[in-house]
Every structure is written in C-alpha cells, then in structure tokens.
C-alpha cells in the first residue's frame, strides 16, 4: 500500500488579518491601554465605503506613530475628501480610484496657494494610505492602479532656509537663560527652606486661619501646601463671602501676589521656558519633542563613567533620539532636568493620568487652576516674553525673533563648524536618515563660505601632492614641475594605480585602464605646458588613428577618450599655456593600435 503524504498546507483564513472596512471611527490606545486619540472619518461627509477603506489603512499604518503625526495626517486627508466631493462625486469606493484620479488630485493640489513642500506633504499622506491598501488589501483598489512617482520634484528647492541664530545671538540667549535659571532655582530653594522652618503639622490641624501669622512667608506657604494642595487659591476662593478667607487674599498681596507665591512652590510657564531653552540648545531636540520629554529621560551611560544619556522620541522618526552629557557644569542638561523634576514634583498629585510621565508640567494661576503638560501655544508665547524681558536683539539691533525651533538649527550649525564642517558627522549628531536633511539645517552663507575655504585648501594640498619640491628649476625661482612616478601616456598623473577606485577595479591590482583612462577619479592633470604638449600630441594621435583603425574598434576604444580630451580637458588650459605648448617639441608616443 502506497504511503500517503501528509499535507502541511494551511487553509486560507476566511477573515482577512487586517480587518474588514466598516467602521468610520478609529481609536488608538496608549501603551497602558488607555484611550489616547479618536478620529471620526464620518465628519468628512463622503461616501461611507471610501471613508471606511481609508480609515482601515489609517488605523494600521499609523498604529505606531505619535499622536501629533496622526493628527496631522488626519487633517491632510480632509483635502482628499474635499477633492472627491468637488471633482469626482461618482467615486463610491477606492476601487473607483485609478491613476488618472490620483493625477487629477495632484493637479488639484497644484492649484492651491501653498508651498511645494506643503502640497507634497498632503499628497504623501494619501499616497501612504493607497500604498497600504495596494500592499495589504489589493482587492480594495483597482488592479491596474499605479501610484504616480515623484509628483512634486525638487520639493525643497524653493524652501526658505531654516531660521538660525548667530553665535553672538546664541550666547546672549544662553546668558539670559542662565540668569533666569539661577534666580528661579534660588526662589524655589528659598521656598523649601521656609517650609522646613515652620511646624507644618500644627498648621495643617489649624481650622481657623485667622489665628496664624500669615505675615510670615513660611507660614503662608505652609497654609497653601497643607490646606490647598500646594496650589495658590484663586481670588474667587479667598474672597468668597462668609468664608473668612479674605486675610489670605491680602496676605498674598503683601508677599508679592499669587505669581510670586507660586514660584516658591512649583513650576510656572514662565519659569520653565529658560530651562527649555537651555536644554533645547544643548540637545538639539525639536520643539514638540522637547515639550513632550518624559520624566525618566535621563539614564547612566552604559560604557562611559560620569556621563548620562538623554533619550527622547521624535514624532516623524521611529528611532529613539539620544545624546550624552556630563554633569561638570551648572547648566549641563542632567542638572537642569533634575531641577525641573524637583520643581514639578508638587504638581504630580493634580495632573491627569495621561501627563503623569511628562517632564514639563505647569500650573496656571490665572482663572481656573489647570495643571498639565505645558501647551505649545503657551510655550511659544512665553518664549517671546523671554526675549522681550531681556531686551534681546539680533546682530542688526532689531528685536530678536526667538523661537525654540531656531535652537535646533543654530545648535547643529555651530556643531557642524566644530566638527570641521563634516556633514556625515553632523548627520549622526542630528540623527537624520539622510545627509540631505542635515544639509537643509546647516545651509547658511557662513557655512557655505567655510566649506568653500576647506575645499580650496584640499585642492591646494592635492596639487602640491603631485608636484615635486625637489625638481625646482633654479632659474625659475620656486616654480614646481610635475613628478613622473605615476605618469600616464597622456602626461597627467594618477595618484595610485593600485587603489582600485575606478569602475570595475579591485584594490591591490593594477588598473586595467592604466595609461589610457581620462575619466578615472584618481587622475590629476596639472596646468603645466609640458603636460599640455603631451595632451595635444595625444589628441593628434587619436585623430590620426581614426583613419587607420577599423571604425568599430576606434569608436569603441578611442572615440570616448578623444571626446573627453577635446571637450573637457583641453579647454581647461588657458590660452597662454596653449601658446607655450605650441612652441614645444611634440613627444614621441606609442603607436595606437
């Protein structure tokens, strides 16, 4: 009886692993399983099937992205649905979307008064959704759908350079931040010392606050901590009729007001900004990534003693961002973060669960007492106030337009200078995936001048390397002549014929194009009359060989060399050198076969 073979094939799943489009609402959870964000595609007012299919792709593609990235993508998709309702109302599902519809959407975006970068970003969000459907649910899209390639070429060509500060402006900003940080930390430490000097337990048990000496700042701070959870009570609480808390209001005025009292107890928006400026200037973090720093962002370096590593997340990157720092200075990042941790610790009991692990927590004392992660609008406003308070000006004497975004650009530009204008090292420091991105950060006139100077120095060293200081003509002073150790038949020089840098060559083996290649990256052609004489002879020999060699052989082997010689190399010599070379005797050259 023939043995029956076991069938190891798996039955296809009747339910697609990526789900079935149906829901128009996409919910995301945080790592602890709590609701984090919600996106309702029904608000776009489109056909339910198109919205459900895009929602399916949105749910899976953005599952691992930050809330800010999801929010930005959701708003960009709104334009796609506006386009469908205005220009293609007959589209009822993504299968109705063909390449012509996508090209029409690109043309529609081109009609908008936006920058090319903004149009490209809007198109990229839709392209990601369509690509996800085509890869994971091909039955939901047209079988012949082709996604247009490079819809917005050279999207960054017209982009304005990122704003950056000069070195003197940056030094003025950090000097002002240092002054504020020292005053803020001193005030907070004073508050801690005053609280340690009073009997807080007795004050906590006292029900009648009129018996306490509220003129004593330590007693006043203890009342706020023990009776109001560490938050200065608002005016509508202290002046409420029939409560007898009016003495708190007038005592607060005597001690400098609610703002001053709060600065003894916890962080405020204006007290966090100098810390954010100092940390951002040293870490090169993006403003949003800086704002969302975690409380446990610092850790010991695994390999280097005395160094600590700051780790944070960037919305557009799946890689963790890291920089290491020493504690050798008062304004070093580890010391600054320790101070922020201490100043925001009294607020932890009041913040919502979603912000418990955030570093830059603030308590608003204007109106309602809102305790949460510092909002971005409040951060931008107080950065402007910081520049105005310290009367910061730019190099032209105008008020300095300071932003947190400029700190990253400025830091990378100055670091690029310190790294010898090595863009690859700067790319690693910035944690960019491409040096093109780094170039857009550091593309400044002062950087370009420095790069031109470095390139000029390298070119000078390159020329000096192929000239011999030992073969100087005594009658011509210090005019150098070309060395001939690695001279080719054409008269110019190869740095190293064994380097293997040419196409199809191997290191350690003699270049197969030795004595014949004009385009090798190792070739160095000194602007010398003798070299020009040999090149002119080579050109004449190549022209003469065209009459004697087989046409196919000449076209294959020698025509490219003659074209390079006539159109690229010889025009680089000045007319004066051509005049001198024409008077020299033509050297004997090998027969061209």
UniProtKB/TrEMBL annotation:
<keyword id="KW-0229">DNA integration</keyword>
<protein>
    <recommendedName>
        <fullName>Core-binding (CB) domain-containing protein</fullName>
    </recommendedName>
</protein>
<dbReference type="InterPro" id="IPR013762">
    <property type="entry name" value="Integrase-like_cat_sf"/>
</dbReference>
<dbReference type="InterPro" id="IPR010998">
    <property type="entry name" value="Integrase_recombinase_N"/>
</dbReference>
<dbReference type="GO" id="GO:0003677">
    <property type="term" value="F:DNA binding"/>
</dbReference>
<dbReference type="InterPro" id="IPR044068">
    <property type="entry name" value="CB"/>
</dbReference>
<dbReference type="GO" id="GO:0015074">
    <property type="term" value="P:DNA integration"/>
</dbReference>
<feature type="domain" description="Core-binding (CB)">
    <location>
        <begin position="49"/>
        <end position="134"/>
    </location>
</feature>
<keyword id="KW-0233">DNA recombination</keyword>
<dbReference type="GO" id="GO:0006310">
    <property type="term" value="P:DNA recombination"/>
</dbReference>
<keyword id="KW-0238">DNA-binding</keyword>
<dbReference type="InterPro" id="IPR011010">
    <property type="entry name" value="DNA_brk_join_enz"/>
</dbReference>
């Amino acid at each position: 009886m023939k043995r029956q073979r076991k069938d190891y094939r798996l039955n296809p799943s009747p339910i697609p692993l990526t789900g079935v489009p149906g829901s128009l609402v996409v919910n995301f959870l945080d790592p602890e399983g709590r609701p984090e964000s919600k996106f309702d595609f029904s608000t776009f007012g489109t056909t339910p099937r198109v919205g459900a299919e895009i929602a399916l792709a949105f749910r899976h593609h953005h599952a691992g992205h930050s809330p800010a990235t999801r929010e930005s993508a959701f708003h960009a998709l709104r334009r796609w649905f506006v386009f469908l309702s205005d220009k293609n109302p007959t589209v009822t599902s993504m299968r109705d979307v063909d390449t012509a519809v996508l090209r029409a959407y690109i043309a529609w975006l081109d009609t908008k008064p936006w920058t090319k970068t903004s149009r490209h970003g809007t198109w990229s969000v839709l392209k990601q959704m369509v690509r996800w459907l085509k890869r994971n649910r091909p039955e939901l899209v047209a079988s012949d759908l082709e996604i247009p390639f490079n819809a917005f070429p050279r999207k960054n060509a017209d982009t304005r350079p990122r704003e950056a500060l000069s070195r003197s402006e940056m030094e003025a900003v950090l000097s002002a931040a240092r002054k504020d940080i020292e005053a803020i930390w001193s005030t907070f430490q004073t508050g801690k010392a005053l609280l340690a000097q009073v009997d807080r337990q007795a004050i906590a048990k006292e029900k009648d606050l009129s018996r306490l000496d509220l003129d004593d700042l330590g007693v006043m701070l203890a009342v706020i901590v023990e009776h109001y959870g560490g938050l200065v009570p608002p005016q509508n609480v202290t002046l409420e009729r029939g409560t007898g808390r009016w003495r708190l209001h007038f005592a607060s005025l005597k001690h400098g007001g609610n703002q001053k009292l709060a600065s003894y107890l916890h962080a405020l928006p204006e007290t966090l900004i100098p810390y954010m400026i100092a940390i951002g200037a040293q870490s090169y973090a993006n403003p949003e990534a800086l704002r969302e720093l975690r409380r446990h962002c610092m850790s010991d370096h695994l390999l280097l003693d005395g160094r600590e590593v700051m780790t944070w997340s960037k919305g557009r990157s799946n890689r963790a961002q890291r920089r290491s720092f020493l504690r050798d200075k008062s304004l070093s990042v580890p010391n600054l973060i320790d101070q922020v941790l201490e100043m925001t610790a009294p607020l932890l009991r009041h913040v919502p669960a979603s912000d418990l692990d955030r570093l830059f927590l603030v308590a608003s004392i204007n109106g309602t007492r809102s305790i949460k992660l510092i909002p971005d609008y409040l951060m931008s406003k107080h950065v402007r106030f910081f520049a105005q308070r310290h009367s910061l000006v730019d190099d032209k004497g105008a008020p300095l337009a300071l932003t947190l975004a400029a700190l990253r650009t400025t830091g990378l530009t100055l670091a690029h200078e310190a790294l010898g204008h090595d863009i690859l090292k700067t790319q690693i420091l910035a944690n960019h995936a491409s040096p093109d991105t780094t170039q857009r950060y550091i593309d400044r006139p002062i950087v370009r001048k420095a790069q031109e100077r470095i390139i000029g120095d390298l070119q000078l060293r390159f020329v000096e390397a192929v000239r011999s200081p030992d073969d100087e003509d005594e009658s011509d002073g210090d005019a150098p002549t070309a060395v001939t150790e690695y001279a080719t038949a054409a008269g110019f020089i190869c740095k190293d014929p064994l380097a293997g840098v040419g196409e199809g060559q191997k290191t350690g083996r003699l270049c197969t194009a030795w004595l014949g290649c004009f385009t090798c990256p190792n070739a160095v052609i000194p602007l010398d009359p003798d070299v020009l004489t040999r090149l002119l002879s080579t050109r004449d020999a190549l022209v003469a060989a065209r009459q004697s060699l087989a046409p196919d052989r000449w076209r294959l082997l020698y025509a490219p060399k003659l074209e390079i010689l006539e159109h690229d190399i010889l025009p680089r010599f000045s007319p004066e050198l051509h005049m001198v070379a024409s008077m020299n005797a033509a050297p004997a050259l090998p027969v061209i076969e």
